[in-house]
Specification:
There is one protein chain. This protein is of the alpha/beta class and 420 residues long. It folds into 2 domains: 215 residues, Rossmann fold (3-Layer(aba) Sandwich); 129 residues, Rossmann fold. The chain is built from 12 helices and 16 strands. The strands form 4 sheets. Strands 3-2-4-5-6 form a 5-stranded parallel sheet, sandwiched between helices. Strands 1-12-13-14 form a 4-stranded mixed sheet, with helices on one face. Strand 2, helix 1 and strand 3 form a beta-alpha-beta unit. Helix 1 runs parallel beside helix 11, helix 2 packs parallel to helix 3 and helix 4 packs parallel to helix 5.
Length: 420
């Protein structure tokens, strides 16, 4: 096991911006590509705010952050990469959206500049492009393996149509096979509204057959007056179904309105949360989830809460508002770049003293530096960019209690051998 080297957790903010000294090492320019105009400008500004916290907390005089507007479009991202390269960027952070990443990638690759994007789409990763977002593969792998370790033996899933649902299903099948968990029904839905979901969840619950079994059981005792029959009828009168479903967990990999539409329907059709464990994703890390009675006892993966709370506190104190959910990605990416630049600066100073050979291209952030085997510590937990372009993450598992979340499996604090 190895311990992450680069500490990227937030600390106190300097009272004044860092200013270059005459003897400072050559400047390493890091571009950050964000939608600073257009419909997603608010998100872009939140990411830039988080990046600036990392800049003033961790960067030294040899680091320069260059914000460039992508306008939230693929064409804008291409123009932004061109601007960044013309300005001498040695590393690119961003863009945010997978279409923008895909459009911008050829220019960055041609220039030999690594791109650490904020996307979670693994299809755009590789050959110098990294995806910092929380991929479905990481989340589903973590929660499925944890459920198996806690005795879950058979999982059903309710998945949206489309690419995201396909990725979740593929990962669920692979992780279930690896952990010995059986799969029950995997149902898909085109849109998360009650009218569409009702017949799908009713089928998943096998509600009609279980309700019919209840009616048949009641008929056995109706009209009888002996104490045993009366007691049996009394026990059955408040039930809607008889018998259990053929799974002991249900995976729901969506949050927000979709989750709040699905969860009550599961309980309504007698998928009892006291017997069937609900499993989620990082999208469940939302206070509204803790207010849903049918989700009490559910498990979901999340970034380790302590470091994230520290980041949220600093962000709120600095900007007077809460950060967006993905703002921490920009903090961690900027902190990662700052740590690497400082490390290379130290190597250059040692080389100047004759103790080490000078590093090749000291201003360029290399693949080897990004994919350091020990990884890095961030506000969303430890993470490790892999040569494949994916980013390995260590997640905690949370349990939903009455109006709060509790850690039931802490996030690992170090990585083993690099995965893929």
């Amino acid at each position: 096991m190895t311990t992450p080297e680069g500490a990227a957790v937030p600390g106190g903010l300097p009272t004044v911006p860092l200013t270059p000294r005459p003897e400072a090492a050559p400047i390493t320019k890091v571009a950050i590509l964000l939608p600073l105009s257009g419909p997603q400008a608010g998100l872009g500004q939140a990411l830039l705010n988080a990046a600036q916290i990392a800049l003033f907390s961790l960067a030294d005089d040899s680091f320069a952050l260059l914000p460039v507007d992508t306008r939230g479009t693929p064409d804008g991202a291409v123009a932004a990469v061109r601007t960044a390269l013309d300005d001498g960027a040695n590393l690119i952070l961003g863009p945010v959206f997978s279409a923008a990443v895909a459009a911008a990638t050829p220019l960055a690759r041609e220039a030999g500049v690594q791109m650490v994007s904020f996307s979670n789409d693994r299809s755009v990763a590789g050959n110098g492009v990294y995806v910092m977002g929380f991929t479905p593969e990481t989340q589903i792998g973590r929660i499925t393996a944890f459920a198996a370790s806690r005795g879950i033996r058979r999982i059903a899933a309710i998945l949206p149509d489309g690419t995201y649902g396909d990725r979740v299903e593929e990962t669920l099948r692979a992780t279930a096979a690896a952990t010995g968990v059986g799969l029950a029904d995997i149902v898909r839905y085109p849109v998360a509204d009650t009218q569409t979901l009702t017949p799908i969840i009713r089928r998943l619950a096998n509600y009609d057959a279980r309700h019919r079994l209840l009616l048949e059981e009641r008929q056995k005792y109706e009209g009888k007056t002996d104490p045993g029959s009366l007691q049996a009828l009394k026990q059955l009168q408040h039930l809607d179904t008889l018998g259990d479903v053929d799974f002991d967990a249900v995976l729901i990999p969506e949050g927000g309105a979709a989750l709040h539409a699905i969860a009550p329907l599961l309980a309504f059709y007698d998928i009892d949360p006291r017997k069937v464990r609900m499993l989620g994703t990082t999208q469940w890390d939302d206070p509204s989830v803790a207010t849903e009675p049918s989700l009490v006892g559910a498990w979901f993966p999340a970034a380790p809460p302590a470091a994230r709370r520290a980041f949220e506190d600093i962000y709120n104190k600095t900007y007077g508002e809460a950060p967006s959910r993905i703002a921490a990605l920009a903090y961690d990416a900027t902190a990662l770049a700052a740590v690497l630049v400082r490390r290379r600066g130290a190597a250059s100073r040692m080389a100047a003293g004759g103790r080490l050979p000078p590093p090749a291209s000291p201003s360029v952030v290399t693949v080897d530096a990004l994919t350091a085997a020990s990884g890095f510590a961030g506000v969303d937990g430890i993470f490790r960019p892999l040569p494949s372009g994916l980013v390995e993450r260590a997640l905690a598992v949370m349990e939903v209690r009455n109006r709060r979340f509790v850690v039931v499996s802490p996030a690992p604090t170090s990585f083993g051998a690099p995965g893929n």
